[in-house]
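Q: Structure for this?
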Amino acid sequence: MPRPSGRDRPVTINDIAAAAGVAASTVSRALNNPGRVNAVTRERIEAAARELRYVPSSPARALSSGRTRAIAVLVSDVTNPFYFGVIRGTQQQLKAAGYAQLLIDTEDSGELEAEMLHKMRRSLDGAILAASRLPDRELARLAGEIPLVTINRNVRGVPSAIIDTPAGIGQAAEHLLSLGHRDIAYVSGPQRSWPNEARWHAMREVAARHRLTFTRVGPFPSGRGSGPAAADAVLNTGATACIVFNDLLAIGILQRLRERHVRVPEDISVVGCDDIFGADFCHPPLTTLTAPIEQAGRVAVSMLLSRLDRTSSPSPTTRQQVMLPVHLTVRGSTGPAAAPA
Amino acid sequence: MPRPSGRDRPVTINDIAAAAGVAASTVSRALNNPGRVNAVTRERIEAAARELRYVPSSPARALSSGRTRAIAVLVSDVTNPFYFGVIRGTQQQLKAAGYAQLLIDTEDSGELEAEMLHKMRRSLDGAILAASRLPDRELARLAGEIPLVTINRNVRGVPSAIIDTPAGIGQAAEHLLSLGHRDIAYVSGPQRSWPNEARWHAMREVAARHRLTFTRVGPFPSGRGSGPAAADAVLNTGATACIVFNDLLAIGILQRLRERHVRVPEDISVVGCDDIFGADFCHPPLTTLTAPIEQAGRVAVSMLLSRLDRTSSPSPTTRQQVMLPVHLTVRGSTGPAAAPA
DNA sequence: GAAGGGGTGGCAATCGTTTGCCATCTTTTG
DNA sequence: CAAAAGATGGCAAACGATTGCCACCCCTTC
């Protein structure tokens, strides 16, 4: 017995039933399935519920209905500003739909990610994976256990919201090329990161189109801490410009270049990806691919919820993939190529 | 019936009971209260549980035990970097203790805050309020409904983790005074913000101690968007230095000053509060009061959990208030006072 | 006037655990 | 050796909702 003393036992559906002079089942129906009960009865019940300040117990509801109205959002690092946007987007959309948001930090570990998903599978209606570190096969398997939507991760059979940064890479490269850069480096993010591979792939395509060769350095963990190593590596290649896996790393690079008295953009141009918080006020302000991060979060939630609502009938209205466009935001970190020494 | 087809009905405690040849109650005890059952029986049960990959159903558990093992963390704006730290701290500590973290963005609205707390009170074991917008009275009332811990908010009867920024204000002011500043402005944050009042109060004390008068401008909403207005207001006061409610606002001010070609720190010095992400790489890097934000999150969780665990016996070991010290981090945004024109 | 059919509402089973209470068996103790 | 105490496990009643099924009433409709 949780609360033996009748101190302030929470109001249940039965209390309302008693107050309104009906059965508990009728109360349940009046509240969830209004068409099913007579209008005047319903009103009486609603009045009683209001009067008693009734709040349904979600555990009880979850137990009997099998639906928890809770969605998990998994991010690989809550302190990475990229995810702020995601979290905010999901938060908004989930709240609007009356779902609770469970935030989980997977600490960049695929195992932790899989374990959490497995453990919580019974208490969740679904999950959104931002930056999953899981192998495709594993991801597909988990998608069978629990409804999943990924962000920035393309796996067959798993719906996803994808930010089309690779397309933006083209714009970024054109921008640099038009400034006279020929020697461009790509600073690689984490090895097992899907967006990282996609971005590098896009770089190579641009290079091929222009009969150039771009070099790649890395991989580096995507944090500011990797900045020094990454900056040094870029300088070693002799490139006059670089496109960096993400802004966080790019900002780290900027700091290191400053330390080494390498001028940006005079000596080297830097382009980031994502346009996170800080990209506009670092020094110099970062030219970057502006991504609709919040929107990605919102879209992912919508996709997930629409899957949950359709009662097992695969409505064709929901797309499996939503591609979100990015655009290049030119700021101070890019400029004309330095004349070769 | 949630899952009518027996497709892959989740494993329950009963399945284990059957497999191990005991009663369900014994399984429950073996898993939650190991001392209560014989060692060999327990091992048999654990083996079966492992074999069947049993995961307990939290709703069911919550329903019968009355405890959900879920804690809500309420922040007033998820995109404010200050809260990243809080969220990360709570996240770590909660995960370690086996609790789920429900993230709620109250969008700076006290009503939304109260409503969410009230609605979720049945599905939560407790909540952590970072930057509550609720009046003291309301807060105290809600603390009776559900275990609460606040961060940076001091209300009688509600335990809290408080970052001692006011003490730091003293250091910041001394720093500025030693640089020759006599005319110092305080840039006020949101009006109903408790930390804001505390910081201004600390400013006035320092001023009194030195027989000076500091001016106050604002209030301003705490976002970068308020930067321009705040910067202009500061310039109007003729102050040679300012201490700003928080870094977000300070960074906004920095940007505006740059636009207006006011040099920092030559023409005016700026000190922020919190040392958020970005404070070290904005231009110039911001001198600020470094706050142990993550730690505040962790401490708040510890306080909350210790309250939950002590089975209604008010153990005196838990303090009601934990004060966390800050320190001044001097960077590029402060320098010697300009000679009066 | 009998048969059929919507509209309403109640009964009771069910979801998966936890836990009070009791029965049994084994030890310890005087 | 009897009685008390402890260890162990089962029974069954919660917890608070949802929902299938049935009963009843009141209208139609032929």
